[in-house]
# Entry
Amino acid sequence: MKSNNFENLFYIFGILIGAFIISETLRWLLKRYININSKKINVDPTNYNFLKNAASFIIYCIAIFFIIYSVPKFKNIGTTLFASAGIFAAIIALASQQALSNIISGMFIVASKPFRVGDYIEVDINFKGTVEDITLRHTIIRDLQNNRIIVPNSKINNETIVNYHLNDERKKEKIEFTIDINNDVDKAIKIIKDVISNNSIYVELVNKYAHTEEIEIKLTKIENGAIIIRSMVISEDPETAFQMHCDINYEIIKRFKTEGILFAPRVGFVNNK
# Structure
């Protein structure tokens, strides 16, 4: 009796180990295929990533099926369960309603492609980041702080999504400065244009796309002895836009101090008198 129990235990263990090896090997082969083809022929990896996760799920389901019908004790349980299939199906459907909803939503995401792996998205203004993976149950998003945000597929499928990579991936970054009204405005505008035109990220983008659009500087508001100067600067994508914005802010502050341009008091800015 004990011998049979040990045999069954080793058999179950062997099937699970085999399923794990097959699953991981298949995932590795698919990942390698995805990486090679994505680089060579620009294949969208989203479908293959979802397929990779679905394949693992199917392999483990087959392994469990083999265990149930190969081990006598489990086979009897399986027969009993199938005899009351109606009740069993109702219980399973109720227990896995959310899981099935996530899987179906994941299929809709892969099929309709509101976003893909590698896209930079904003989900209902709550958070934004780059899509790293779309699994059977959830979507993984990496934000600018390098955090991984795990969002159930059923939730993200019902949210309003801003996809910054659909069509033209470039975006215009709003850069504003508030200066004292007594400053030389023409001088301030010249400094801002000079800093933007010499920014390394902006220069790289201009060369890449042969961008010839002139840098626009606008005086958007005059209030309380202050002038608000705004520029809309083209950028590659939201992540590089943020870095470019930070670099330009840093250089503008240095140049304004050197050239005697004074900031006006405003939230987020400090008067440099």
Observations:
- The radius of gyration is 29 Å.
- Confidence is low (pLDDT under 50) at residues 267-273.
